[in-house]
Amino acid sequence: MPDDLTPFFAGTYFPPQPRQSMPSFEQVLRSVHAAYHDQREAIQEQNRSMQQALEQLNQAQASDLPGESLLYEACSQLERYFDAQNGGIGSAPKFPHPSTLDFLLRHGTLRDDAKARHMALFTLERMAEGGINDQLGGGFCRYAVDAQWMIPHFEKMLYDNGPLLALYADAWQADAQRPLFRHVCERTAQWVMREMQSPQGGYYSSLDADSEGEEGRFYVWNRKEVAEHLDDTEYTLFAERYGLERPPNFEGCWHLHVFTDTGTLARRYGLDPREVRRHLKSARDKLFALRERRIRPGRDEKIPSSWNALMIRGMARAGRMLQQPDWVVSAEQALTYLRTRHWREGRLLASSRDGQAALDAYLDDHVYLIDAILELLQARWSDEDLGFAIQLAEVLLAHFQDNESGGFYFTADDHEQLPVRMRPFSDDAMPSGNAIAAFALQRLGCLLSEPRYLAAAENTLEAAAGELQQSPYNCTGLLTALQEWQSPPETLIIRGTGDLLAHWQARANTGYRPGRQAFAIPGDARLPQSLADKTMPSEGCIAYRCVGTQCLAPIRDLGDIPEKE
Q: Is 490 left (phi over 0), alpha (psi -120 to 50) or beta?
């Protein structure tokens, strides 16, 4: 409604022409027009009821924080919906849900919960081998229309690929540096830098599903086209691995999905596994080059702050864990873009196109960006970036915090007035802003010994406690933050110079340690007092180790850095 902005009709998608019982967009517009003019009083009465319902929905009941048993209860709930054959939570259509997989992998590792760990790693394996993952060019599509992860909705979104990149880097460390997970990281990161990063540094939003008016046309193959461009050995191995000897799986064509592992192919054809992998790589390279000549799907060149933050975090974390400095540089370039184009007069803007930023930023924009900066600082230190994270945190406390009930509103206190000012706690396609606020403020608070950030994180968890207890499996982002509150993160501050500092940093980053954050800070850094107190050694390196806000004796020997949580 134009007077108070209360919505009275909503929908997800309306086709250009009526089909499958769906009205066309034109019919919807005409019906809305008629309803607005002929049923004004009924709409206003409906809106009053809706507003009351939304306000009740927004009144999350604060209570004491739940104990560790809630983490296990959430895992049990997720296990009931786990697809033991194909991986993933639920049935078709099947979404990646990176927040859920991240929680399961963290919990499985920190609490030695084999079931949770298996659900995460098995799902990541099946997704990596599925058609939801672009087997030639890298990057994940939004979701699969089937339970086997075979046929996706071919749209590729930045907000999926950032968290998935970080998650596959974690899986690579957690699963004994399994090559499959490393390859996924490499192809995803290469896709991001090749196709999704603007010349100015920011990351574009998405790639369309359609090209030449057909969904998936850019990605699918016919046998003749593949056979014409591969030699006999390449074709035989490629066809069996990716299913070309099976019936077509997408509208008379083939969309690539891994059906046969390389070990099986090696035994069947009497080849060394390395030879099989070499032939398959040659085949993929040839077909990728051929595919590059096709008409490409459209690209949405908006640069949203929140989605960019998710990708900055993914590139920084994967770059650090897999020792890929060019991925870290890509993340730096995107952060520089946001700081120079989206940060104006002490406030953040939500999105830009062609370098022109607009719209007041939301909760997600701020908290995702703080979380991303903390990851980037662990890859390489920057005084300026730490200062930016602190500025964002201060805006968060000043303009988004619910000072009475705890938690954070989705919009700032000086934002355009909406019918209801919501405090989102459950995850959606992206993690809940309140979940990331609780997680990132706790980590930033531990780094800086800042009690205001720690208190805001705890108050957020208390505000969400009722919803957490009611439906924990819908709030896995908050469960991750709750787990960190129950077992505060270990923070390592490493001081030193040159190659020795890098050597200590590499040791601190070895293995999958979800409860650790480690920062290698050179001697010339200009630091807040709480960090400046952790002084440089007279020679060599030193690591200051804190668990939560409790600091332990400094570590002066590299071998004394704990290898386990």
A: beta
Sign of CA dihedral 201, 158, 379, 524: positive
Is the pTM higher than 0.90? The answer reads yes
Q: What is the rounded distance in angstroms from the CA atom of residue 53 to the CA atom of residue 40?
A: 20
Q: Closest Cα partner for 145 from 133, 158, 132, 156?
A: 132
The Cα-based distances of 266 to 129, 180, 276 in angstroms read 18, 17, 6
**What's the DSSP call for residue 254?**
B
Element (H, E) at 444: helix 433-448
- Taking each helix axis from N to C end, the angle separating 232-242 and 273-291, rounded to the nearest 10 degrees, works out to 90
Distance from the Cα of residue 85 to its chain's centroid: 25
Contact 428, 413 (CB under 8 A): no
CA–CA separation, 168 vs 314, rounded Å? Answer: 9
Strand order of the β-sheet with 542-547 is: 516-522, 490-496, 542-547, 550-551
Report which DSSP code applies to 110.
H
3-state SS, residue 331:
helix
Q: What is the pLDDT of residues 504-540, one digit of tens each?
A: 999 999 999 999 999 999 999 999 999 999 999 999 9
Question: CA-CA distance, 119 to 372, in Å (whole number)?
Answer: 26
Which class for 552: exposed (0-12), middle (13-18), buried (19 or more C-beta within 10 A)? exposed
- Phi/psi-derived region of residue 36, left when phi > 0, alpha when psi is between -120 and 50, beta in every other case: alpha
Q: Taking a C-beta distance cutoff of 8 angstroms, is the pair 145, 255 a contact?
A: no
